[in-house]
Amino acid sequence: MGATGLSLHIGLNTVDPDRYDGWNGHLVACENDARDLSVLASDAGYSGTVLLTEEATVDGVTAALRAAAARLRDGDAFLLTYSGHGGQVPDETEGGDEPDALDETLVLYDRQFLDDELNRELARFAEGVRVLVLLDCCHSGTGIEVRDLLTPHALREQFGTEDREQIETVSRLMPVARQGAIYQRDRDFFQELQRELRADARRADALLISACQDNQLAADGRVNGLFTGTLLRVWDKGAFSGGHRAFHRAIVSRMPATQSPNLHLSGHPAPSFLAQRPFTV
After folding, report:
1. Is residue 280 situated within a structural domain?
2. Using the 8-state DSSP alphabet, how is residue 279 labeled?
3. What is the pLDDT of residue 112?
4. Which residues fall in a coiled-coil region (predicted)?
5. Which of these ranges, 43-52, 91-100, 225-234, 242-251, has the smallest mean pLDDT?
6. Distance (Å, rounded) from C-alpha 148 to C-alpha 220?
7. Residue 125 in domain
8. Is 281 a domain residue?
9. Most buried by CB count within 10 Å: which residue of 86, 126, 131, 201?
């Protein structure tokens, strides 16, 4: 009997303004990213679930991840893709695991989903499940404070402007001032959640390819995000034949220097998985 492949594709063009102090986080291409990557996955033999905007709540995403973890076994494959805003919240708890004292977040419809929450869900997968994660959002590198590293020159090179408001309309960065205000509002909730996650800190074995480095922002687009659109062109409807590192290098070679996708290994994914052709079931 062959391996099973399941995939989950998340795309948010807006968030709930009632949960984000009036901000709706409007983006253009994230739902398209999710749909297009679900087609790619289906063509590769995955059975997929797509969660768009209002469906992409913390409960909805968590339930979908747990359903996949309950089904998959050693040798099976899981693909997770996310397109939307990225954010950060301070990690002020004792013994925090982030060198920059920040937890990166996926900005889901009803609240921010911590990177450690995502790790906890991916760690539920059985040993030997091949987990690939594609994140097309800001703050998706390895977790260094973006605000301190983005110089005016870097912003001008990437977006043609240094104006933060203009940049926030064409990138997948949750506005920095909004991040701070919402964290202060929900500080007690996040601190309790971070303490809970710290007590259950087993690292997931997963391979991550993300849209940008720590000192860069991920650009939105008219049809797809810059990263997702480039990935789709490199994949070329399955014509690509190399392994994950070669796939990453090919994507990077087609991206501008101002947005260079990152490849990151969490835990200890098998070397044979890393060498395997992407999206293999």
Report:
1. no
2. T
3. 96
4. none
5. 91-100
6. 22
7. yes
8. no
9. 86
For the chain, the distance separating the N- and C-terminal CA atoms, rounded to the nearest angstrom, is 12
Return d(Cα 263, Cα 185) in angstroms, integer: 34
Lowest average pLDDT, out of 101-105, 188-192, 234-238, 273-277, goes to: 101-105
Residue 138 in domain: yes
We report the CATH number of the domain holding residue 154 as 3.40.50.1460
Q: Which string of DSSP letters, residue by residue, matches 1-15?
A: ----EEEEEEE-S--
Tokens of 152: 């005016």
Cα 118 to Cα 254: distance, rounded to the nearest angstrom? 29
- State which residues form the domain around 245: 5-275
Q: Facing residues of 106 across strands?
A: 86, 113
Give this prediction's pTM. 0.90
| CA separation, residue 181 to residues 20, 57, 173, 178 (Å) | 9, 21, 15, 5
Rounded CA-CA distance 139/117 in Å is 16
Strands, E assignment, 115-205: 130-136
**Cβ–Cβ < 8 Å for 47, 243:** no
> Is the separation of the CB atoms in 221 and 36 below 8 Å?
no
